[in-house]
Specification:
about 350 residues, mainly alpha
């Protein structure tokens, strides 16, 4: 076979049909072997042109079947092993696999979210059909939720893809008192909604008392301090005119509104899963914001404190809402005689 023809066949391999589930199951089995090189190679192969063809084939088989047992069997046999692989901690936290994992998610999301709008309702219906009082059913449901969380993290267009909103809203139905891992599922659903720009989920079902002994034994405890997101992603909108989601829109020097603002600035945390941007873009965003805060942040706070003192001369020893963080020298009654630029 000529080299060119062989290359074309690699990109457009013949459909596997009934053998497709075995393809993903074998990939998952090999991924679990205690060999990091093998695990990395599995994800890279799934993200290759040939691997993406298999993923698209699995998507077509699922979405072309009626929403019921046939589609659930397809998800159970093909998608669960695939989702297990790409949501595994070894795949999600590996810098070497960041690009391949993102490519797989982009394939499942499709152009303008078209493929996601077809596939996600099936995955949601599948998760709801599981017997989540059992360890196996709960584990599969969490795998689906982990996939949704990572997908919303990677595909920034998800939050503006309107057909996906009711799908994410319907995840509230997954919360019930008798789930095997209620706390973890509730936590993931809230994180997904946050990534989608939706409000925090507090359904009446979640207000019921969950067996605390069961929660202590079976669920991971998450202690998380609320940090409002930047710009329009924030719960109450932008803090001021220099508070933006994208760092390219941020002025280096603080603006008047920024100085006057009483809301705390957005400072990214170390945990990459809690950043509002993923991958390299998220890393650059985090480093820029922290570096800016370490430099001009002190200038901003110093000007804010002095401004308050000038506006509140009767209260010189108390700064309402502010706390001095850096030593500074203030020169009062200064008159400028000349300005020279050199």
């Amino acid at each position: 076979m000529p080299p060119k023809a062989a290359k074309e066949n690699d990109r457009n391999p013949a459909k596997l049909g009934y053998a497709l589930p075995k393809f993903f199951q074998t990939a998952w089995e090999l991924f679990q072997e205690d060999d990091a090189n093998v695990s990395q190679e599995i994800v890279k192969l799934l993200a290759s042109d040939g691997g993406l063809v298999r993923i698209k084939e699995a998507t077509e088989i699922t979405t072309n079947s009626s929403k019921g047992q046939d589609s659930f069997d397809s998800i159970d046999e093909s998608f669960v092993p695939l989702l297990n692989t790409i949501t595994h901690e070894a795949a999600v936290k590996s810098p070497l696999l960041e690009s391949p994992v993102g490519r797989i998610h982009n394939c499942l999301f499709g152009p303008n979210g078209d493929r996601a709008c077809q596939l996600y309702p099936y995955l949601t219906a599948y998760a709801k059909s599981l017997e989540r009082t059992t360890s196996e059913g709960s584990k599969k449901a969490i795998t689906v939720l982990k996939f949704f969380h990572k997908a919303a993290d990677i595909n920034s267009n998800a939050k503006v893809t309107e057909p996906l909103v009711p799908i994410i809203e319907s995840l509230a139905d997954l919360i019930s008192d008798d789930m095997s891992d209620a706390a973890e599922e509730g936590y993931l659903i809230d994180r997904i909604r946050s990534r989608m720009g939706l409000g925090r989920l507090i359904p009446s079902k979640q207000d019921k008392n969950i067996d605390r002994n069961k929660q202590t034994q079976k669920a991971n405890v998450h202690f998380e301090i609320f940090r409002d997101l930047p710009g329009n992603l924030g719960a109450n909108g932008s803090r001021h005119d220099n508070d933006h989601e994208d760092i390219e829109n941020i002025e280096i020097l603080p603006t008047s509104q920024e100085i006057e603002s009483t809301r705390s600035e957005y400072l990214p945390v170390f945990d990459r899963s809690r950043l509002h941007k993923a991958g390299l873009e998220g890393l650059i965003d985090r480093q820029f914001r922290l570096l800016r805060e370490d430099t001009v942040g002190q200038l901003r706070d110093a000007v804010r404190e002095e401004r308050y003192r000038l506006m509140n001369p009767q209260n010189q020893h108390h700064i309402s809402g502010y706390q001095e963080r850096a030593r500074k020298n203030v020169y009062r009654n200064v008159h400028l005689e000349d300005i020279i630029f050199s």
